[in-house]
Amino acid sequence: MGKCDGRCTLLVICSLQLVAALQRQVFDFLGYQWAPILANFLHIMAVILGMFGTVQFRFRYLIFYAVWLVLWVGWNSFIICFYLEVGNLSQDRDFLMTFNTSLHRSWWMEHGPGCLVTPVLDSHIAPDDHHVITVSGCLLDYQYIEVLSSAIQILLALFGFVYACYVSKVFQDDEDSFDFIGGFDSYGYQPPQKSSHLQLQPLYTAG
Question: Where in the chain are the domains?
Answer without folding.
Answer: 6-102+141-175
